[in-house]
Every structure is written in structure tokens, then in C-alpha cells.
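To: structure subgroup
Subject: Chain for Friday's discussion

All,

I'm putting the inputs and outputs inline so they're searchable in the archive.
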Amino acid sequence: MESNAIFTDLVGVMAVITMVPVFFVWLEKKTQWKVFNYLPAIIWIFLTPILLSNLDVIPFLPFDRAIIPRSTPIYSFYKLWAVPMFIVLMLLDINIRESLKVAWKGVAVLVMGSLGIVFGAAIAFYLFRHDVPPNTWSGFGALAGSWIGGTGNLMAVAESLDTPGEMVGMVVLVDNIVYLFYFPIILMSKNWAPLFNRFSRVREEEIRHITEATQSVEKKTHEVHFKDLLTLLGWGFTAILIANMVAKILPEAPPVLTEKTWAMLLVTTFGIVMSSTPLKKIPGTEPLSMTLVYISMTMIGASADLRSLGAAKWFLVAGFICIAFHFLFIIVGARLLRLDVSMAAVASVAAVGGAASAPIAAGYHREELVPVSIMLALIGYGLGNYLGVATAQLCQLLQ
């Protein structure tokens, strides 16, 4: 544990770590400043602990001690159970059968767009492999996991691949910088509907069919009781326990497919399987999982070392290459499956933006697509871990 920090004990570190997200979530809701439209609370929740843990190494600041340490067993112990826990909780909301029934073409294009990110990441890594650190393949896997799933997938893939904190920092920065360019394109694509729909050869009756089908999507109640949280935690820890036990007996193929990677993939699979049981109907999955995600995000920021961010520019270029391939695969998928611009945009943002952004884009295009957008985003959560690891394996073979 680093001693050159003001708080190094469990209570002190966790007080700072938990109050950072509390403050910025409150500030965003209370003030509604426009800056949060471009840099949402989750970005500040990540950036602030970087500053707090690096005060002693920033040249122009007169501090010889950090507020919290960059390395401590507290972070490792928390991520040991919290990361697989929020993966299970998030995946409990998946309804693959309903998604396929309502918008199977959207699901297919989502998968194609996700494969575009995998190939884009692999090509970008191959182009810049001599300009980045040797273990950057794990960072590309985390980036792919983030854009195919979300922040939870980023952390799950990074943790399973032992991605260094500073490299995760690069991924988070690239993720959000590229997204600032990506999301306006998704919104503006509504204006291209006549041209795009002629290109994709979609018929008006197919668009109406999706609109009618979305009206029957079932919604989960938001009323949460203590027994709901108790049940979710109990089954979550059980899934983690079984995954860890099975992972110990599975064959390894280092450096990508290790016991930790197997455990994460198994937890993902168990979460998807459990989503087809009555556990799916238990409320509280979203608030509980997002609480764990925000705290984990703060710890990842605190673990980053500013002295090791030199390769961020290549990550940024790689990020734009990934998004370019993603767009290409989305467009090709829409053409092959005759998907209109709104559904194609929702399928895209469900992967790259996740459950937070997908409803916004869907509401802007066609409000009736909001339930479908959430379902597609949850499928992205399920794909993110598998394809993130696959991306890392592909990049590792190319180095």
C-alpha cells in the first residue's frame, strides 16, 4: 500500500471514494449545467480521483502528498466481488426472447455493429502496435468491451485481463472524447431518413410493424424492498462462487484466457441464464448495479498514474478507427436486412452508448422505440464481455 497519501485506511479511502460519485450525481441533478450534456457526471467521477491520487506527481502543483493512494488492497478487494456482482445484476434485465420477437433485425444489426468494433480495434492495434506499450492489447479489449456493452463491461474486461489502471484511464478518455463526435452524428441521422431508407430499401409497413410490436413490451416495477436487494445479492454471490470454482478447472491460454478471464465469462453466462428465471422480475437490479459501477469507476480513476499516459494519442486515433468500422458494419447490416435509419441508429447507440444513451437517441428518432432501445442495450451488455475478450485475444495475436 502507498504511504504517501493522507487517507490510507479503509474508512478514510472509502469515504473519499464514495463521496466523489455522490457529489457529482447530486451536482448534475441539482444544477443541470449544460457542461453535463457534453461531460456527464460519470466523466467527472472518473477524472476527479485521478487528481486526488496524483497530487504528489503533478509538476505544477505544490503538493507532496496525495489525498488517496493509487494502489491499495482496498481497491483490489472491492473489485474482486463488485465487478462480477454488477455484471450479474445488469444481465438479469436481459430479455433475449422478447427482443428477438419485437426487433430481431435490430438485434442482428447490433451484432454486426459490434463485430465492426472488434475488427476496427484489431486493425487499429495492428497499425499502431509499435507506438504503444507492449500490453496495450488488453486496453483495446477493454475499449471494445466498453463500446459493445458499457462502463460495466469496460471494467469487467479490464479486470479480467489485468489491464493497468493508467491504460484503463486512456480507454475511458478515448471512449468519451470519440463519443462527443459520435452521438451528434446519430442524432443528425434522423434528417437523412429519406435518403437512408431508400438506400436500405425498407418498406413503410415494416416500420409500422416495429412500432406496433413495441407497445407490448413489459416494464419492470421501480418499487424496491429490502428482500429484493437481499435476494439479488444472495444469488449474485452464488453465481460468482460457482463461476470461480468452475474457472479453476478450465484450461488456460495465457496471457488472455486465464482463470480470471474464465471466471468473468462464466459470470456473464450465468447472468444471461438467470435472466430466463423468475429472478428477472425482481426489482432493484439497476440501482444496485449502478451503485457498484460508479464506485468501481472512482477506484479505477484513483488507480491511474498520470506519469504513464503518454500513449493516449494513439488510443484516440484507434478509437476513431473503431467507430468508423462500426458505422460501416451498421450501414451494411441495415442494407442487407432492410432496416430504416431510426432502427439502425438505435441499434448502433445501444452498443456504443449503452442503456444510458440508447433511450435518448430512440426518443429523438421515434419515441415508440425507447423500450426496444433499452432491450438492445442490455443485449450489448451480454455481448460486451465475450467480444471484449475476443478483441484482446485477436490483438495479442497481432502484436
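Points worth raising on Friday:
The radius of gyration is 21 Å.
The chain has two domains: 10-71, 83-398.

D.
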